[in-house]
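Re-run with default settings, no changes from the original entry. Doing this only to confirm the output is reproducible before filing.
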Amino acid sequence: MSHADDHAGTRRDFLYYATAGAGAVATGAAVWPLVNQMNPSADTRALASIMVDVSGVTVGTQLTVKWLGKPVFIRRRTEEEIKAARDTALTDLVDQNAENANIAGVADAEDKNRALDEAGEWLVMMGVCTHLGCVPLGTAGDFGGWFCPCHGSHYDTSGRIRKGPAPRNLPVPVAKFEDATTIKLG
């Protein structure tokens, strides 16, 4: 009988398998910290979504909160602001996309596609100018919405760019009402 016909494991086979197993475990132990470091830190995960109490926001006022290190404008619009936003023709807009993370796919920039509620009273937007990242001033500018004094971008009462160097509308983040007085961002 030759050695090739003997199928029983030898000491050498055991050493090969044991060494390969130990090498696989050592490689996994060395690679895991490198892969795990790419996960977001605990403080970032904690800020991934926040609850905002809007019970104190009256009609015609705005609340600014910080979320993910950026300002977010939460505005409770007046009937006049809603009417001005809804009466604006899409052809008058620089950016005709809704820029709304709550809507799957591409939607046009009609006011109903940017407001948080059906009535259009609540508007939630990132408060960062799409030109160079400045923070626009509320209830200012030529269209009664927001005005970025750094480079002269004018946004209307729906946060859509109307005049100036900004290329896009103020983006609408993922947001929804949790109850009548609480908005969840993220």
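Helices lie at 11-36, 42-46, 79-86. The chain has a mean pLDDT of 89.
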